[in-house]
Write a structure and sequence with these properties.
Elements lengths: L18 H13 L13 H7 L6 E9 L4 E8 L4 E8 L4 E4 L3 E3 L8 H4 L2 E4 L2 H17 L11 E4 L9 H14 L7 E5 L3 H8 L6 E5 L5 H7 L8 H15 L4 E6 L7 H14 L2 E6 L13 H13 L4 E3 L23
Helix pairs in contact: 4-5, 6-8, 9-10
This protein binds S-adenosyl-L-homocysteine (SAH) and iron/sulfur cluster.
Length: 343
């Protein structure tokens, strides 16, 4: 499985081949990925045949399309049965891939389907990078209507907490940047607030974007929604995010999932505005996508608008995010490897 080898170690896989073959294969894996090894046109057929059955470190178990073909969700299945979900969202000028860093998640945020279904295992760097390679190959070879054939952004907002799988995520980012040639500025790491992880990320050489999933502006409420807040309370999280901004000079964003009557009050908006101002952060509001094991409801459109207005009047940059792929359970927080689980 070539993606499970570090790009520098590919020669191990092709022991009997000359080194230029290794370079050619590396290009096919990382520079111009293809869905099928049969399309690796400058490799001999025998080698293509050898690579083909294990090109991807997972099988494509489910592929679903929504939003007139501009949203696509894949459920990949690793050979040990671990589920890996990725969602590609196409727009007129960009294409963003939402990737998973873990199969499941151990952190148990109450409103998140991944959290509700628990932790399966960490993903390997190659399993993380292969999601990106697969989407790049898909865009190049199949494409989406009215969407560029090039992947422009990668966000770690699929299943799992990237900073709870730090070393493997770090290695995945290294491969995306150094081997695939992606700009670190086009990569966003979204975290529930693992403070030591944020501090380590600030010391890495890559200026990736940092998104903080805040959802509540006081510790009492946040600890209820996001249990890990008891370990890393808001003040510590804010300090780590501020240090990231200072060091990287990359604007931090704050994610806020809007839950009816829970965190959509004007008091919360006030406290959030104070935090966002201190961090020079951009706030992304997203209506909750209902999940099977939680009774929380999304905020009404009116409350979302009022909340956004309250932030704007306090000079905070705010975007209300669209919820792509709702009908195929591909929207934020809905990923949980539904295959085989009836509802
Ligand atoms: N573990 C990381 C990244 C994966 S979750 C994190 O928590 O940031 C990606 C985003 O989806 C987070 O901002 C998360 O809070 C949000 N999210 C989770 N469940 C959601 C839901 N049901 N509706 C809307 N957003 C949700
Ligand atoms: Fe894990 Fe993020 Fe879901 Fe929380 S919101 S359970 S950290 S994936």
């Amino acid at each position: 499985m070539p993606y499970l080898h570090a790009p520098e170690d590919l020669a191990q896989l092709l022991e009997d081949e000359p080194s230029y073959r290794v370079d050619q294969l590396r290009d096919w894996l990382y520079r111009t990925p293809v869905l099928d090894a049969a399309d690796m046109t400058n490799l001999p057929t025998s080698l293509r045949d050898r690579i083909a059955p294990t090109l991807w470190p997972f099988a494509v178990e489910v592929e679903q399309s929504a939003d007139a073909g501009t949203t696509r969700k894949w459920l990949f299945r690793a050979s040990d049965g671990a589920a890996i979900e990725a969602v590609l969202m196409g727009y007129p000028k960009r294409a963003t891939l939402c990737i998973s860093s873990q199969a499941g998640c151990a952190l148990g945020c109450t409103f998140c389907a991944t959290g509700q279904f628990g932790f399966e295992r960490h993903l390997q760097p190659g399993e993380i990078v292969a999601q990106v390679a697969y989407a790049r190959a898909f865009l190049r070879q199949i494409g989406m209507p009215g969407v560029p054939g090039r992947l422009t952004n990668v966000v770690f907002m699929g299943m799992g907490e990237p900073l709870a799988n730090y070393d493997r995520v770090r290695e995945a980012i290294r491969r995306l940047v150094e081997t695939m040639g992606m700009s670190a500025r086009s990569i966003t790491v979204s975290t529930v607030g693992i403070v030591p992880g944020i501090r380590r990320l600030a010391d890495e050489p890559w200026p990736v974007n940092l998104a903080i999933s805040l959802h509540a502006a006081d510790d009492e409420l946040r600890s209820r929604l996001v249990p890990i807040n008891k370990r890393y309370p808001i003040a510590d999280l804010e300090a780590a995010a501020a240090a990231y901004y200072e060091k990287k000079r990359r604007r931090v964003s704050i994610e806020w999932t809007m839950m009816d009557g829970v965190n959509d009050t004007l008091e919360q908006a006030d406290e959030l505005a104070a935090i966002a101002s201190r961090l020079h952060a951009h706030v992304n509001l997203i209506a909750l996508n209902p999940t099977p094991l939680s009774d929380e409801r999304p905020s009404t459109q009116l409350h979302i608008e009022q909340f956004a207005e309250a932030l704007k009047t306090r000079a905070v940059n705010v975007t209300v995010r669209d919820t792509r792929g709702r009908e195929i359970d591909a929207a934020c927080g809905q990923l949980r490897a539904v295959s085989g689980i009836s509802r």
